[in-house]
Amino acid sequence: MDHIRNFCIIAHIDHGKSTLADRLLEYTQTIKITEGQMLDDMDLERERGITIKSHAIQMEYVSNKEKYILNLIDTPGHVDFSYEVSRSIAACEGALLIVDATQGVQAQTISNLYMAIDHNLEIIPVINKIDMPNAMPEEVEDEIVDLIGCDPEDIIRASGKTGEGVPEILEAIVKRIPAPKGDINAPLQALIFDSIFNSFRGIITLCKVENGVIKKGDKVKFVQTGMEYTADEVGVLKMDMVPSKQLSTGEVGYIISGIKNATEVKVGDTVTHIENPCKNAIEGFQEVKPMVFAGVYPIDPNDYENLRASLEKLQLNDASLTFQPESSQALGFGFRCGFLGLLHMEIIQERLDREFNMDVITTVPNVSYMVYDKQGNVKEVHNPSGLPDQTMIDHIEEPYIKASIITSSEYIGPIMTLCLDKRGELVSQNYVSGNRLELIFMIPLGEIVIDFYDKLKSISKGYASFDYHIDSFRPSKLAKLDILLNGEPVDALSTLTHESNAVVFGRRMCEKLKDLIPRQQFDIAIQAAIGAKIVARETVKQVRKDVTAKCYGGDISRKRKLLEKQKKGKKRMKQIGNVQVPQKAFLAVLKLD
Ligand code: GTP
């Protein structure tokens, strides 16, 4: 145990975590030559440059003639996955805090650092990308000293590109991070920090043994789920899984126990023995709940079962994705999917498209609401169209987030305007360094799911970083806004919005839909209504468009080609009553100016 070091790398997105991890793996000869980044194995991940799921990898390192086992637990970099970050952190004794020498401290640097400090981790600050011509190591050093109160000498300067600083980092891991503690003779207590799906082996549980020993063949229990299994195989994660006889206190590894369903393995759960179980589960377990919901519907109704099968497959890798059958008058049969956040939603949409070739229509995302009726009963609603009748509702509560935005002072004005416009309240402002500030806001999550990131990016010219955590549910005066096409309400276009902007919002929705719905062979009336009251109206004028008219009935194959082309164009359309509505229209609300 004395020669084990468990650590993670925490950083703001793109500050170079994966690149530096690769250099550590190369230097310790865990991997030979890098072709691209080794830790991100999904295509999509690489393209986006985001480590979506955390992994763990073991390295061997010799310091002063003593051999050490270093377990690097990789953490996902995005706020949507912050619970996974916190569990990965809980499995470590130390953390490398990476800060980009050209960017300085950013929102996720701070939020991840606080998580690490909460878990009493030894922090090794690293200034990365010092090879870059616009690196400002002195300024960034000051920021880090201000932030964590460390000695400037404790900060390592490094480059994931050239490999500079890598030997110093490895020495610091061995010298500064404490060995894991724990009692090898105590009952087994292992923290689950991740799971991976393998098509031959099923769901593989990744854990760190806090106390006791787990041996191959042991009968174990997962405390929170109450499920019991046999540990058919245990082992450590190098570039491949390497089976071993046992995992002992302080060690990080995997358990294979024939689990078929990813939802059985909950990150943060505790593994113990059925006989001689530990007294308490490891603290801090929290059920991750999806906060953002959207309807996902097959364009072709015959694809419904395929869509279900695809979602089930995605869930094998990603237990935080939820889905339930739902039907919409407008879109037919589909699923209401729950996501941790917006990025998570985008990833799932892309994977449905790329990996499963599914043509789907996705509705506007919304958050989960707590609806209180007049009798005091509370119901969680995931879809504006599932809202009970207005007369039955006493009040509605919506989730608020605590948002941290770091930016330089010149952008404070527009950012304040944006956040206040989104019903945000400024809680505090703190100086980070020089002219950079951290602003803390409370904002309804429902306002963030609609075009917040993009606006923040554009008004700050990319110089604002953003991070958030769900804070609490708070009462809000929300109104349901319905959209009618030729008098027919389109359930998939209903939204919940704050009473104070409902009318303006309705007007903008009608205007946007007018742009998005193509002219057809009759007039289309677009109306916005709150309850029975129509608050806005637009009309798409009729047009007569016969694509074959030009052909003078001549060449029949040419005529067929044109009709085929037209059919293709219709593919992404949905028939609502007699109106053809394109997919874009269902996301109109995201595009309001
Ligand atoms: P996530 O895994 O998405 O959180 O990002 P990350 O923090 O792992 O960043 P990543 O390692 O993907 O690096 C982001 C970008 O910076 C990539 O284009 C890297 O090639 C580049 N980069 C990383 N480290 C260095 C460095 O030391 N010097 C230079 N010049 N570029 C670097």
UniProtKB/TrEMBL annotation:
Subcellular localization: Cell membrane
Domain of life per record: Bacteria
Catalysed reactions listed for this entry: GTP + H2O = GDP + phosphate + H(+)
Topology of this chain in the membrane: Peripheral membrane protein
Domain Tr-type G: 2-181
First-level EC class: hydrolase
Function statement: Required for accurate and efficient protein synthesis under certain stress conditions. May act as a fidelity factor of the translation reaction, by catalyzing a one-codon backward translocation of tRNAs on improperly translocated ribosomes. Back-translocation proceeds from a post-translocation (POST) complex to a pre-translocation (PRE) complex, thus giving elongation factor G a second chance to translocate the tRNAs correctly. Binds to ribosomes in a GTP-dependent manner.
Name the UniProt record assigns to this protein: Elongation factor 4
Native species: Prevotella histicola F0411
Gene: lepA
